[in-house]
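Record pair follows.
FIRST:
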Amino acid sequence: MKKILYLFFAAILIVLSACGSSDSGSASEQGIDTITFADAGWDSIKVHNSIAQTIIEEGYGYQTDVTSGSTAATFQGLRDGDINVYMEVWTDNIKEIYGEAMDTGDIEKLSTNFDDNTQGLYVPTYVIEGDPERGIEPLAPDLKTVEDLKKYPEVFEDPEDPGRGRIINAPSGWAVAEAIDAKFEAYGLEETMNNFMPGSDAAIVADLTDAYEAGRGWVGYYWSPTAVTAKYDLTLLEEPAYDEETWNETKATEFPPNDVVVAVHKDMPEQASEVVEFLKNYETSSELTEEALSYMDENDASAEEAANWWMKEHEDIWTSWVSEDIANKVKDAMQ
């Protein structure tokens, strides 16, 4: 009986050992089966995800996936390794946790996707200058700065609170919303203006579009590159020049320069070294990104469709990021 039990357990150990050897062999050969991207909710990150996913799937043979969530949740996912790639880390919007993640070695910055972006509180240009072609007189001709907004509650009237104005903040869960909150206090905007936090980027766009088409006053947070800033004539309201000490204390300056970087989890260089080498070369610009976003808007296209269009329009750019062999594989798959 003892001999039978011994043989039984020995057989189990052999099977488990074989399974373990098989798994480790697969891991050493490929390292990772599926590369997961972060989607924090805005269109440009979706487009860049799709461009990178196409190249990785068709050129390198990996499967890809996307995890959606707030900036905080997806960035934590990157640190934890649940997410492998983040195509748009707006570094100064999450300066503290980004710096911490870099210091602890949880993530690696591979490249700067683009650094020619702007963000802040915008108004339609007709609010300041009027629009003779549309028969719109200037609504606030002396409006120049964010602090000036408190003088014009009637121009940006809150439909739910007559007599007070309304400023559209960033969506709930976005790191930048806290900066807008701080600006409200620093500039005394709460004296006459309400701080309205929408549920999504789409809600901001819908609100702006309605106001713009009607020629009404509107003010809110937005950024470039986006389809919105490409489509509409908007003016970024002025703030004092960026000063790090003032920004850290009150946020009463313009937004800091913002490198939008491609970052990966610390294990990616070992898990998919060839993909990491590709991502080290990934570099675009606000103008190039806005082209894809404008295509989305004008053609009611998905991020995937816009990415495919962009890659065909700018084959010279993305093929410079990879070897000729990989580029040919991707081009063949896209035909």
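SECOND:
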Amino acid sequence: MKKFIKLLGIMIIGVGLIGCSSSENIKEEILVDDAFGFEDKANEIIIAGDTVTFIDGTGEEKTINKNPKRVVSLYTSHTVLWYEAGGEIVGRIQTGTSDDQLPKEALSEDIQIVATSSSAKNISIESIISSNPDLVILGTAMSQPTLVEPLKVAGIETIVVDYENMQDYLKWFKVFSNLNGKAELYDTVAKNTLNKTLNTLEIIKDVEHGPTVLNIYATPKSLSANLSASMSGGMISAMKGINIADEWNNPELSNRIDINLEAVLIANPDKILVQQSSKDGSAREMIEDLYGESSAWQALDAVKNNEIYYLDMKLFHYKPNSRFNEAYQQLGELFYPELF
């Protein structure tokens, strides 16, 4: 059964995907306006003197002083973004699956490991406080009463980062770069990523009918379907892919739902994209075990045409940050090979 599944090679080494290092190069990249409103959230941020004001993931308006000296980050993708935006940290989480995303500076032995999981229940407040931070960066999945409130009581500033898409990336890059006193990085790094992404979207502006897509989210224990509200689902939608799961019943309005195999068979998607959450091959194995011997599954056009792709975790599971443009480019190559 393995022969009907194609592994998507994601590594891109072309010079065209390497970030520009100057604002002059940025100007050359601008081909289209931001018709998608990617910068809408970034434009709401208020920069005034020594402070940055914004709405964080709790819905609270925060005003934070620039140039924090001792920062702890509790989510790997946020740590990567903090470094891209010119920052440094004194403490972080350590995981066996995501540490290879970090810049070498974040792997220094001088940086304190405050937890080995991004789950709030496994993070000790005492461990965080022992690193003597003046700012802690958390994710929205981290419990407000478990972490945020105790840190507030201890007099430690927090930022809860809500981050699902390119719009959020630009917002938080602008917040972080201004907090770090390096506002210019927004133009030379974040805007470079934006401009390249807009160029990719410009290529497909005349496409009227994109491919139908089933976007599977695979963990070592379960399979579900990403909707357009998810990070990968949103990129698929922007690239004019038609997410078949968006038509399924979703009473909880979640970002992903259980796979309805009968509905998949009826929709008969052109392509199946698999978001992997681990590097051990369990996603491929689970799909083959559950569906590989099914005659109905074998009859799907995506299966018959060898159009099942396992997406690079660096671009479609972890937040791609300054590599968002590469993720959009990859989808363009999958959906419209005649244009890319």
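COMMENT: The longest strand covers residues 212-218.
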